[in-house]
């Protein structure tokens, strides 16, 4: 009888261990599947991050190129404005000299040097006679 009880206990323990192993096996399988999903999701996120990084680098390069172009354009624009202002000053000075205003006053009004105004006065006089 004792042997039968021991045998029943051993069989019961073995059965209990088998059920526990089966449950643990299912848990491991679930964990493995979850790990595979997370690994795949991580790989996809890494690809997306790399794509964003590459795009960001390209955009940064384009922005730098556009900045260089904008600075060059700004310099050209300033040069054109200075030239136009200068041409306007000379045109105004020529008109004022033609109206008989003194060289010193023309230089002051048109923001020209005395030499520029005097040269423009002689040039205008020569054109009128020539």
Identify low-pLDDT runs: none
Q: Class by helix and strand content?
A: mainly alpha
The helicity comes to over 70%
**Straight-line N-to-C gap:** 147 Å
Q: For the residues shown, what is the average pLDDT?
A: 87
List the helices and strands in order: HHH
Would you report the number of β strands?
A: 0
Radius of gyration, in Å, reads 46 Å
Domain unit count: 1
Query: What is the molecular shape?
Result: rod-shaped
Tally of DSSP helical segments? 3
Largest sheet: none
Residues in β-strands, percent: under 5%
Summarize the structure in words.
By secondary structure, the chain is mostly helical. It has one domain. Helix content is 92%, strand content 0%. It contains 3 helices and no strands. The chain has helices spanning 2-98, 103-109, 114-129. Helix 1 crosses helix 3 (114-129) and helix 2 (103-109) crosses helix 3. The longest helix has 97 residues, at 2-98. It is rod-shaped and about 145 Å long. The termini are far apart. The model has no long low-confidence stretch (mean pLDDT 87).
Short description:
The chain has 130 residues and is an all-alpha fold. The chain has helices spanning 2-98, 103-109, 114-129.
Layout of helices and strands, plus pairs?
Layout: H1 2-98, H2 103-109, H3 114-129
Short key terms for the protein model shown above:
130 residues, mainly alpha, 92% helix
């Amino acid at each position: 009888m004792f042997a039968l009880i021991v045998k029943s206990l051993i069989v019961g323990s073995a059965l209990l261990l088998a059920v526990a192993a089966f449950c643990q096996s299912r848990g491991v399988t679930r964990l493995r599947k979850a790990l595979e999903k997370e690994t795949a999701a991580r790989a996809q996120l890494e690809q997306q991050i790399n794509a964003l990084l590459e795009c960001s680098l390209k955009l940064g390069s384009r922005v730098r190129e556009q900045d260089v172009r904008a600075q060059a354009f700004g310099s050209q624009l300033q040069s054109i404005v200075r030239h136009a202002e200068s041409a306007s000053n000379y045109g105004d000075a020529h008109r004022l000299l033609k109206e008989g205003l003194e060289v010193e006053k023309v230089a002051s009004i048109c923001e020209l040097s005395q030499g520029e105004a005097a040269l423009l006065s002689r040039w205008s006089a020569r054109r009128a006679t020539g």
